[in-house]
């Protein structure tokens, strides 16, 4: 019998202009959903300040008794900086790391120590007892020439010591199933958790997909166009679309759903309420 699929969330630290209290409110609301883990982003968009990420990851673990994953990008950090963050993680009992290359900030000096996430995975392995997660891309990473190349490098990350893969968001489950087949062919045995983002507005989806190059299927494009000027309808349609994806993924035996919450606890709750019995089934 298959193990129960996991249900987890991604959250991000508040932006500089926002109060830290905002994330406490979100976490208070998410805690009742009892996720299997919560991952906390770090420097998405390029800022290098680990403090907020580690503080929030500690809070998730210590106050809400929920496992937390620390996102750790390496492309603008050297070994000394990464070592210091890992030491801080050890001190706080944070043992789950999502090892990432990270978003490249134009004009900012690149690391002399790390070029790819696989370099970081190898380095973390040497630093002690961490559970390592890595990112993967059902539509391939936007810089990769083709799937063959991308899957080859994904396998390198797994062989270096990653146990679990978290996917980039996608809106067409067929892309996920094809990607899983490629992983099977490449003998990638790590668990793959599907990253699903319920979309709350058209501007948000266009911004995100232009950054990560995830495609918008025609069915989803129609929804965006029809409801873009009606906030409530857009949120409801985004939730329904995500639920539809999740039902299909669970029915087809996915090992977990990782919800990109965008710190929106209302949306996470709605998705949870509609699908939680399926995770138990
Ligand atoms: P890599 O695995 O290093 O791959 C990057 C590219 O290089 C790919 O095209 C790959 O095919 C290629 N490649 C890999 N190894 C080699 C090699 N040895 N030789 C030649 N080419 C190679 N970014 C943040 O800054 N902060 C975050 O918190 C964050 N969280 C994320 C969470 C998830 C679940 C995902 C999917 C992405 C996240 N990102 C985050 C974005 C991520 O950093 C970017 O997508 C980045 O462009 C690639 O990171 P990676 O770890 O997948 O890179």
Describe this structure in words.
The protein is of the alpha/beta class and 281 residues long. It has a single domain, classed as TIM Barrel, CATH 3.20.20. The protein contains ten helices and eight strands. The chain has an eight-stranded parallel beta barrel with strand order 1-2-3-4-5-6-7-8, surrounded by four helices. β5 (131-136), α5 and β6 (164-167) form a beta-alpha-beta unit. The longest helix has 21 residues, at 231-251. The structure holds flavin-adenine dinucleotide. Flavin-adenine dinucleotide binds at residues 41-44, 71, 73, 100-103, 116-118, 135, 141, 143-144, 149-150, 153, 157, 166, 168, 195.
Could you name the CATH class? Alpha Beta
The total number of structural domains is: 1
Secondary-structure-derived class:
alpha/beta
What is CATH's topology name?
A: TIM Barrel
Q: Indicate the mean pLDDT.
A: 94
Strand content: 15-25%
Count the helices. How many?
10
Instruction: Tell me the helix content.
Output: 40-55%
Most strands sheet: 8 strands, parallel, barrel
